[in-house]
Amino acid sequence: MTSNESGQGQLFAGTDNQTETADMASKKAGKASPSGARKKRSENAESMARRQREISVSEFFTKNRHLLGFDSPRKALLTAVKEAVDNSLDACEEARILPDLKVTIQRIGDNERQFTMIVEDNGPGIVKTQVPHVFGRLLYGSKFHRLRQSRGQQGIGISAAGMYGQLTTGQPVKVKSKPGRRAVPLEFTIRIDTAKNRPEYSDKPIEWEGKQHGTEVSIPMEGEYRRGQRSIQEFLKLMAVSNPHVNLTFTEPDGTVTEYKRNTDELPKEVEEIKPHPHGVELGILLKMIQESENRTVSAFLQQDFSRVGPTVAKEVCEKAGVNPGSNPRRLDTKTVQRLKDAIEQTKIKAPPLTCIAPIGEELIIKGLKKEVEADFYQAASRKPVVYRGRPFAVEVGIAYGRPGDTLEMTESGKIVEKSVKKNDELLMGNADEPVRLIRFANRVPLVFQQSACAITKAVIGTNWKNYGLQQPRGALPIGPMVIFVHIASVWVPFTSESKEAIAAYDEIMDELKRALMECGRKLGTHVRKGKKLANEFKKRNYITMYIPHVVDALKDILELGEGEVRQATDNLTNVLERSRKL
Amino acid sequence: MAAKKSKKVTKKPAKAKARKPMSKLDQVTVGEINRCAEHVYKRIQKLDKPELKFPERSLKNARYDKKGGFQMGRGRIERTLTVNTVKTFAQTLKLMALSKEMVQEDDFATKREAYYVSKNWGEAKFTSQPESDTVMDDIEALFSLEGVAREQLRFRPEDHGGNVAGSLVVIDRDRETGAEERIDCTRFGSGSYTIPSSVEHFRFETKAKFILVIETGGMFARLHEHKWWRDVNCIIIGTSGVPTRSTRRFIRKLSDDKKLPVYCFNDCDPYGISNIYRTLKVGSGNAVHLNKFFCVPQARYLGVTPQDIVDFELQDATHPLKDVDVKRAKDALKNDPFFRAHKEWQKAIQQMLKMGVRAEQQALAKWGLNFVIDEYLPQKLKAPKKFLP
């Protein structure tokens, strides 16, 4: 199981389990005879060694940029914006600053295919010595080593964007930074040495008018600018949904400015870093943790390298595994470690501290949806954080249903009328006969690509929406005027690849997703059925009033009624029929 | 609404035209239509839901009377004006209005024409002819309670009647002049006389001994081609499936007037027996309200009977019964008052079900094309008493 799932992606990430798989492989290889080598007699170890050298991650990237989301010019531009915005928001929130962002896409000269992407924030800025590394080095960052919820995870995104820009335009990345009120703003020009994975840079002081603190990154790059689905514009709109505390100004190449205004001053809850939780830890990870641990007894290892393990729990685990708590963990063989792992699983351990998770919360989800999606009905469900593989995560679902103007309401006098609401050009919500729009988020970042490969999509499809009054073709998204918002917050979101486009379908995650969807679905069902009943009644009443004139007309012809009699009969009949209809 | 405007256009000539004095029968018809509309109108005035009661047209509401075929029972369907019925309700009244207009104008409409007239009714129009036929049948049934026939409501079926050949003179009248027209059914050569839609005024002259009603066009053609009717001195009538109303009325009238026995020669399958023969003899559930005029209670079933399959060794010229056949046969045994009243028929149908096969009239050709003329019919006609009831 381990190798299969981790094998899907995490190439660079070198996550714990990844490295572990390699360890295991080398161990196995050590035991078995190296049959692979035997076949190539013409080569010897010496000749091969001459060709063996370190592969620079930067070089690797230039060959495998699709892994990071830079496979097409259109996608590249969006990925770059996404990475820059992620970084800005993470920085602002960590510094407890309400984020004000400016995103600008400019054409470079008359070139149709070259753009400069500029993202400016009011965050804490970056100190001089770090700027070149953050933007000019892959796998350099503050977030990778921590079990803590943040948008970025790997320290790869923004530098990859810069590298892509450099590759496609030959231009360096420019960064402005002002790390504090009294600091001198500096402008950096950064090139990446792709062979060494090291930045080459220069910096100079600049005037940055009116700026208290913050960072601005501008990357020239090859790209393609479009609107509509999976566009930058849509991405930012989604961003505004999941981050109602952000003010964002977006300037498009043609000069169009869109403002996404915050409607709450509430910053996401501050999150703490945690140690892994023992439950769900896999054998490989456990082995690796033992290797890296500084603790010299099993008991201490369990207590200090994991969260929620005290002396009692450590003792219980050791007893169940038949391991001496005082023994040196590094001396344990794999079989014993396996026993230890089984023992951990059989032991009741308090859930991990959930302070490392900052869900958006039902109230703010609805606020976010209301801000960007005009609908008739809003509902949200925020599940309590739970654990997969020792990592806490929380699932949240929001629903916006019904295009205003398409819905009916009953007046106090008992008449049914069409709700009159201003219609506007709605980007997110589809028509009543189209599949629902699913918007996916991981740690508040919209996921716009690879929808079908994502656990969230699978969970939405796997939910029976017919129970909630929607149509749903087999194996597909339900049909209806609806936006489904799904957010997964976790200290480590298990993406299927480094470009962070789809979430892996762990059982625990799928279960939570389904529960949250059903929770919202039940409330939606009540609303939909009410609406259907009203629509049905409206149709029936229309139907009746449509045929009443014909009934009266025929009577008029047969009985030669006068105009007054006709009018009265029509009124009477309408009255009789409307009176007889009950809701 | 557009529908309303166009309607006025059609009504104008109706009122402009001077009215002929109506016959007594027509006055009754108009009176009934008025009474019906009045009933609805009064309920509306009283702020009640209007309702109409129609006789139930189904086998369930049929009583079998050995002398007069199916009789209508007391089953009534009440149609109250609700969402589900409002359209049909409007259509029913509209058709009545059309009927009244036609009586006053001394005009008529075929069922199809009436269907097209409805196209001018806006939303209340019929979308297909079966829809308008059903409403028309309901009205017909409703008025039959008061003794008003469809002809008086001025609706006509356009289905043409069966074919007639044999020693028979039909005395018709010229519609324009009223002069007598004598039609000699022996003198159509290789063709035959076709029964028109209205036969009420016919008189007959014949010396034939019986009437043979034949299900298939092919068998009729064979008997006619060989002038078989001359050899045995009879009248043959081909119905090509279920006999139309006018054919049934024609046979009934001819048989009544000239005291002629009626024999039926059908395929030996559930359809030939329970639909074609049963309908001819006692009428149908759907038209249960007018069976008293249209059924031919004196009809007897000559063949092909299930026993014939054995007697004439037709086993290897049969086809297995299909599921629908079996269903139809079982349904007849269980639900059809006619078959339930006749043990002989129950035995015959049971026998067919047991054999699990059906035989067409043409199966007799197994023994030679003219076996039916040379052997089968002469042998059967020797003992008419053995015919199934």
Primary descriptors:
heterodimer; A: alpha+beta; Heat Shock Protein 90; Helicase, Ruva Protein, domain 3; Ribosomal Protein S5, domain 2; 4 domains; 6-stranded mixed beta sheet; globular; disordered N terminus; B: 389 residues; alpha/beta; Arc Repressor Mutant, subunit A; 3-stranded antiparallel beta sheet
How would you sum up this structure, described in words?
The complex is a heterodimer of chains A (583) and B (389). With 583 residues, chain A is an alpha+beta fold. Chain A folds into 4 domains: 63-260, Heat Shock Protein 90, CATH 3.30.565; 283-346, Helicase, Ruva Protein, domain 3; 354-526, Ribosomal Protein S5, domain 2 (2-Layer Sandwich), CATH 3.30.230; 531-580. Chain A is 38% helix and 17% strand. Chain A has 17 helices and 16 strands. In chain A, the strands form 3 sheets. Chain A has an 8-stranded mixed β-sheet with strand order 5-4-3-6-2-1-7-8. In chain A, strands 9, 10, 11, 14, 15 and 16 form a 6-stranded mixed β-sheet that branches. Chain A has a two-stranded antiparallel sheet with strand order 12-13. In chain A, helix 12 packs across helix 13 and helix 16 (507-559) packs antiparallel against helix 17. A 6-stranded mixed β-sheet of chain B has the order 10-7-13-12-14-15, sandwiched between helices. Chain B is globular and about 70 Å long. Chain B folds into 2 domains: 2-7 and 16-156, Orthogonal Bundle (Arc Repressor Mutant, subunit A), CATH 1.10.10.10; 163-382, 3-Layer(aba) Sandwich (Dna Topoisomerase Vi A Subunit, Chain: A, domain 2), CATH 3.40.1360. By secondary structure, chain B is an alpha/beta fold. Chain B has helices at 2-16, 24-45, 86-105, 111-117, 129-144, 150-153, 217-225, 228-232, 245-258, 270-282, 291-294, 306-311, 323-335, 337-341, 343-355, 371-381, and strands at 51-55, 62-65, 69-72, 76-80, 109-110, 155-156, 163-166, 168-173, 180-184, 193-194, 203-206, 210-214, 234-238, 262-265, 299-303, 319-320, 357-358. In chain B, helix 2 packs antiparallel against helix 3 (86-105) and helix 3 (86-105) crosses helix 5 (129-144). The A-B interface holds A 540, 543-544, 546-551, 553-555, 557-559, 561, 568-569, 572-573, 575-577, 580-581 and B 1, 3-4, 7, 11, 33-34, 37-38, 40-41, 44-45, 47-50, 81-83, 86-87, 89-91, 93-94, 96-97, 100-101, 121-124.
